[in-house]
Each structure stands twice: as structure tokens, then as C-alpha cells.
């Protein structure tokens, strides 16, 4: 027995040490997966010989191409870049045989490595996706455009400016190093409350978790049933109120709606114990109570955006279970909302046991997950456009990023309290319990999305890599409610912040699909409608928003406590 206990203890210590080493050097399992891929190739020598033969043929083609270019042949792009890849857009990458050869060498190796990865014998789709993601990160990082001596455009600019561009680039790098992030926009060009989040409104409630902002309609009368918007706490609410032309909030108040919006507290280490239950009870339930009290309406029309929509979906299931027949919600609108996390898009590369343990260890030290860390993860999903594009422009070219309100908002990050975020990642993303009837308990009630009977208006976006529309679609098969589904062009942000405009390039598909409808077949059968979906949504809301009444700004229970945008958004 003593020997068995000793062996068991040593085994446990060894396993613990292995886990600590993985967390320190390979938290997302890249090395382990890479070694597995190498072993797979070594055990399949014929397949390995085949892919090495392909590489040898590609190298010969590149050599012939390069030699031909030096002898005066026209550029034929033996290994053409992706049409959306703008890194080699400058004419010098086509006109110069030397730089054209470097470009083609990089693209040849990039294509071969990625093709070979997906051809790895015995590698499952999840391992392929994870390894391909990290391979892309490395390939994007070593692109010749990212280094001064292999970027002819940056070198020419340095000569033309007498070295001033390099001096400015070093200054930009030093500034960003102090901030801990690569600037995507001119951060000095915006100030919340001055040229962002300027729609007139008031703080009518302030609690430990949120401020409630009330935006009264600009019309003489308003719909009796107020509109309650649950914004994502993963970012700040003012994406819905960027400026007068882009503001969804202003659009709604101009249409005669009384609008209440959550402005979430930006938590720190003192708030580490805040739970998902708190966000439901002290968040959604609280803002609904405030809106009902001020408006005098028994019900509200509820809206949730991104993770706010996930919370709204959970609330609806919770409320239908707790107070059947008395749920204070007429209808719900879900904007780019995931409820089924089986395939949550590219972000799934971070979601496994090792990745979650790494994130949880970070949260344990501070009591929260820093928004910059989360933003970096999302930026890695589109590294060329969201990281290396700014690396080249800011530091190699020495340019100041242009002022762009959406990018300013994107960099104005928030923090995630430890207990809530651990629950969110583990129970929703990893175990996918939200779509399993009664598998999840929130605020004392078992959650079943099948209990949701309120009419739903769902908006998803065609190019969304955070909440892929084929995943958001799956809610249609879960709920008992009728669903009006709208698929907008563009992505997670610009497909939602999509105001009506005379020359709008966006459009949408819409219909009322039944359970079991194939999403791609549905899309193909719908007529594409030009313009913004906002007016259509308003027409859907009006029949469920009651008669016209005189507007009410506040009441004795919830007096005005200051002007919007309030104080929490500035934290």
C-alpha cells in the first residue's frame, strides 16, 4: 500500500507538472498538435513523398517564373494572391522582377504549407482548424511586407521623406507600446459624450452592475410599450450611438419609440464574484422593471445584441419558466446572437481544455479578463486586416491612423468578471448547455429555449466570424415562437450598424422560416432587398408597441441622475 500511494502521488505530481509546462509554453496545444501532424506524415511515407513532390514541382515552376521575369517576360502570377489580399497591391510587386520573385516565393510556400496541413492523414476537422489557425498566424507574421528591408514601398517612402517616416514610425511604436496595443485609429480624435454617444438622454437608474439610459422619443407622442436594449458587456454600448448619422438609438427615437439601454459597469478585481445570474437579475430584469415603471406599460419589447442577445434568450427561457403567462415582454429582437455554440466560428480555436485553463489562470490572478486580451484574440481572427495592416502603416510607413469611430469603439475595451466569464466559456461555449433543455440552471430556474413563445425578430450577418449566421439560425428549431429571420450583408458590426442611406451598398434577405428549414436553401429562395433592414424592423415592431401616448422622461422612483452617456461608459 505505501508503494502504491507513492506511485500514485508521483503520477499526480508528474501530470500536474506536465499541465503547468503546457500552460507556460503551449497553452493552446499548438506544439502537441504539430507533433501529431509530423508523426502522421512519417507513418504515411507514400503520402509524404507525394506532397514533397508537389513542393519540388512548385519550386521548379517558381524558378522558371523568376528567370523568365529577369529575361523580360510579363508578370503571370504563377502563385496569385487572394483577390482580397491587399498586401501586394502596390505596382512594384508586379513591375520589379526582384520583388515579384520574393512575393511569389512567399505565396508558393504559404499555399503549399496550408494545403499540406489539410491533407494530413488522420487529423480530425477540429485539429485541422486549430492548427490551420496558428499556421496562418505564423505565415501572416513572416510576410515580407511586415519587415522594412523586404518592403520596397516602406523603403521608398523612407528615402522620399528623408527618414522622417521611420522617425514617426518609431514614435508611433513607442506610443502604442505604452498603451499595450496597436492603434487602429487616431485615439485623440474622439471623446465619448462629445463626438460619440451624443443622442440626448438621461441616466434613470444606477446600480452595482449597470446604468439605465433613457432616450425619449423626439416625436410629440410615443408608443406606449417601451423598447429595452440589452447591449453586449463585452464592449461598450455606444456602438449603438456612434454619431447622428449612424446611431440606431437616434433612429428609433425619431420613429416614436421610448428607448432604454443598458450601460454596463466596467468591472475590476473587486467584482470577480459577479455571476451570469447577476447579469440576468440585476441586469435584464432590472432594466425591464425601470422601463415599465417609467413608461407605465406592463410589458416591453426586448432587444439583445451579441452576448446581450444570448442573455436576452436566457432571460426569456427563465421568465417563461418562472412566470408562465405573465412574462413582461411582448416581443424580442436578437441581433447577431449565438445560442448554439457547437461551431462558434474561428474563435473556437481558443476553446478547449488547455485554452480554457489558460484563460482561467489569467482571471484568477486579476479577478477579471482584460478586454485588451479578448480584443487581441478577435483581431487574430483577421490578422492581416486587423493587425499587420496597422503594423505596416503605423510603424514602417510612419502614418497616423485615420479617425474612424467604429475602430475607436473597438479599442475602447471592457473587462469580464471572473465568475461570469468562467461560466460563460465553460457552460455555453465548451459544454454548449444553453441548447440542451434543462441542462443549465440560471437564477434558480432550469433553462429550456423551447419555452420561448414571444415573437422573435432575428438579425444575422452574412460575413460574421463571431456569431456565424448558420449557427444563429439554429435557434429557429429550438423555440416555440414564430421567428422573422433577417440576414444582412456585411459583418458582425457593420451589418447591424446599417442606417438607411441613399447610396447604401448593403442589402438583406428576410422571411419567416419554419422549423427544419435548410438555411442555405432558404437564402436562395428569398429575394434580396436593397438597403438597410432598420425600416423593416420598425414596421415589425409597431403592431407590438401599443397606442400613442405622451412621453415620460422619468418618475419619482427613477428620477434623472445625470445626462447620457452617464459615468459607467467612461470607466
From TrEMBL:
Any one Gene Ontology MF annotation carried by this entry is: acyltransferase activity
Stretches the record annotates as Disordered: 545-571
Q: Which Pfam families match?
A: PhaC_N
Keywords annotated in UniProt: Acyltransferase, Hydrolase, Transferase
Could you tell me which SUPFAM superfamilies the record lists for this protein? alpha/beta-Hydrolases
**Keyword Transcription regulation attributed:** no
Give the matching InterPro entries.
Answer: AB_hydrolase_fold (IPR029058), PHA/PHB_synthase (IPR051321), PhaC_N (IPR010941)
Poly-beta-hydroxybutyrate polymerase N-terminal domain boundaries: 84-252
One GO biological process from the UniProt record?
poly-hydroxybutyrate biosynthetic process
Span of the secretion signal? none
Name this polypeptide is given = Alpha/beta fold hydrolase
Where is the organism placed in the taxonomic lineage, from the top?
Bacteria, Pseudomonadati, Pseudomonadota, Betaproteobacteria, Neisseriales
